[in-house]
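re: ur msg from earlier - yeah i can do the flavin-adenine dinucleotide complex, just paste it... oh wait u already did. ok heres what im feeding in:
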Amino acid sequence: MAYSMVVCVKQVPDTKKITGNAMREDGTVNRAALPAIFNPEDRNALEAALRVREEHGGTVTVLTMGLPAACEVLREALVRGADRAVLITDRRAAASDTLATSYILACAVRSLKPDLVFCGRQAIDGDTAQVGPQLAEKLGFTLVTYLEGLAMEGRRARVKRNVGSGTETVLADLPALFTVMETANELRPAAMRKVMRFKKARGAAEVAKAVETEQPGAAPEARAAEVQRRLAALKDQGLLIEQWGLDEIGADLAWCGGAGSPTRVHRIQSIVLAGGDYREFPPDLAGVQALIGELIEDHTIG
Ligand SMILES: Cc1cc2nc3c(=O)[nH]c(=O)nc-3n(C[C@H](O)[C@H](O)[C@H](O)COP(=O)(O)OP(=O)(O)OC[C@H]3O[C@@H](n4cnc5c(N)ncnc54)[C@H](O)[C@@H]3O)c2cc1C
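and the outut:
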């Protein structure tokens, strides 16, 4: 049986490259100072979906919510083999916390009517690992976290999941949402032919910006007509990144952006991990007894 699949991917600042001016004085990340990358585990989520399509057939749609610059990760997803790419972008989505983000994603995913949704386990910037489970809850889908292996059996999935000390296998009825670990699979290399083809894929906001730059003196109607002409051409060539706003996905604004975000940031603190006191105990019975005595006294054990 062929499956309709959605993969949620996020563009994130490369938090491994935090140096110099990458942190602001208030402790927040200066996103402009860091390269923007495909959230690592979202690549594994995409790979898991592509493998299901290879074995059983179906379609893979990648979905991201972000600024128009997030089209970059959608282009990469098309290069890797996604069939369709959708950007949700809307000024009214700014200041969304995880609850609002998962609400907006849920509105979009619902309209795609998937059998399977794949998310990364965690994004390397927000780091909460909340969006996948919240999305499953809102969609009413079976949720399986920490996926490391997947085999489809009709309307059921056999999932190997990491439980920290080992793995367990669970059966999940469809529709289902999986959060995928980095250890789930090896990524396929990008084919040069596809890199060349999909580097030309564009979304509506990118096209509008290009027309504005190229035709600064043109009348607004002429510019709008040129944008429509270019979008139609991209669609014909299979190079259109679809762009949806909150109205198109039928989102209730009360659940989006700041209005839909109960999280309040009270304080941001830089934590510097440092070593504590160093004590050495002799490697004999007396030494072990002294160590245990001290750990009990400190309430570390006992
Ligand atoms: C008060 C507050 C205000 C915020 N304001 C903004 C803001 O204005 N702009 C902003 O960009 N961020 C904002 N954020 C951050 C934003 O809420 C999170 O980045 C977002 O909800 C994802 O959470 P996370 O990074 O912890 O993802 P996780 O829950 O760790 O992500 C798990 C998986 O969910 C999926 N996923 C997560 N986010 C997306 C996405 N956007 N699109 C598609 N799939 C996704 C991916 O598959 C990802 O691997 C704000 C956060 C708070 C608390």
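cool cool. The chain has one domain: 3-201+238-260. ping me if u need the other ligands too
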